[in-house]
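In response to the reviewer comment on reproducibility (Comment 2.3), we provide here a single inverse folding case reported in full, input and output, so that an independent group could reproduce the run without further information from us. The structure tokens appear first.
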């Protein structure tokens, strides 16, 4: 894919040496004024750039922003993230991804934003997004699955992201059925899958992922602090979001491909290994009732198998799970 002028200029600046504005203009067949405008855009994004009338431009420091030129050096994927749409502000990456999917964008197209105004989780819940500190993105997928199988994709993504976090941070991330990732029993990642199709055919799936990366305690609403955390709070280290994103996409593509080739059976074992839900006393919350029991397994379809207090077995397809506080 042909690089944009902004992407070309940034690549030159990343060398750390002075770059001639005149040479850039000649190489791109654009005016010096256009080059200056691109430099101005980079400065507005937070890049510190030294200007010299004789030497040109030199990059002093790079902000933690999610523009494609800063992400692509960390991409080691065949499909996921090969095309990136970045927006300073969106109502929701899910909504934008759905629009692009309806316009026939390819599988693997990545939609990112820095400020998400109406991000949402499962069942329409609001997802808290902190600009410059969170990762919120959606990926267009076009798997040949039945609508029933689509519910397995958050489980596949959970395994992939959990493994990526464990490898990148050395933190012990775990999976909470059906779509949360926890560290020390606090939520750090939420996953959402929304599909378009009919009863027999899936046209596309929008996989939405929200990650609390560099949030500090003050960023988390007081009422959520017992249940929500960030990678920074748990590990004590500031993480470069573009690098983390590159790792997540690599793991996601790897496990997604395994799932497409081998089915959910290959994912199920890994999910159970990473689970904080299996063998725990839980409450499953439904719209109008609760189920008390013990999570004993994950079936071949991704349903949670629960043994209730009367020793009845339930295969749970949907619901919100809470680990009971008296569990040892």
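Designed residues, in position order:
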């Amino acid at each position: 894919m042909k690089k944009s002028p902004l992407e070309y200029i940034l690549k030159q600046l990343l060398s750390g040496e002075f770059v001639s504005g005149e040479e850039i203009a000649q190489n791109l067949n654009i005016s010096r004024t256009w080059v200056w405008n691109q430099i101005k855009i980079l400065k507005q994004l937070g890049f510190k750039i030294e200007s010299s009338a004789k030497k040109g431009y030199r990059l002093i420091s790079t902000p933690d922003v999610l523009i494609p030129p800063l992400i692509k050096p960390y991409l080691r994927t065949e499909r996921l993230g090969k095309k990136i749409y970045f927006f300073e502000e969106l109502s929701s990456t899910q909504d934008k991804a759905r629009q692009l999917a309806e316009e026939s964008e390819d599988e693997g197209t990545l939609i990112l934003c820095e400020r998400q105004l109406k991000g949402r989780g499962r069942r329409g819940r609001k997802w808290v997004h902190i600009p410059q500190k969170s990762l919120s993105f959606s990926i267009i997928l076009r798997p040949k699955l039945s609508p029933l199988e689509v519910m397995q994709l958050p489980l596949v993504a959970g395994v992939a992201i959990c493994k990526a976090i464990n490898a990148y941070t050395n933190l012990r991330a775990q999976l909470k059925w059906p779509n949360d990732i926890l560290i020390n029993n606090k939520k750090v990642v939420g996953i959402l899958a929304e599909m378009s199709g009919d009863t027999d055919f899936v046209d596309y799936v929008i996989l939405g992922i929200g990650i609390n990366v560099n949030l500090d305690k003050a960023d988390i609403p007081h009422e959520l602090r017992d249940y929500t955390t960030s990678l920074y709070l748990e590990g004590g280290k500031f993480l470069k979001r573009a690098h983390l994103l590159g790792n997540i996409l690599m793991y996601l593509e790897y496990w997604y491909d395994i799932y497409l080739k081998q089915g959910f059976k290959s994912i199920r074992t890994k999910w159970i290994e990473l689970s904080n839900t299996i063998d725990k006393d839980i409450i499953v919350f439904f719209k109008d009732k609760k189920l008390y029991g013990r999570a004993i397994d994950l079936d071949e379809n991704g349903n949670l198998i629960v043994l209730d207090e009367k020793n009845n077995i339930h295969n749970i397809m949907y619901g919100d799970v809470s680990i009971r506080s008296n569990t040892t």
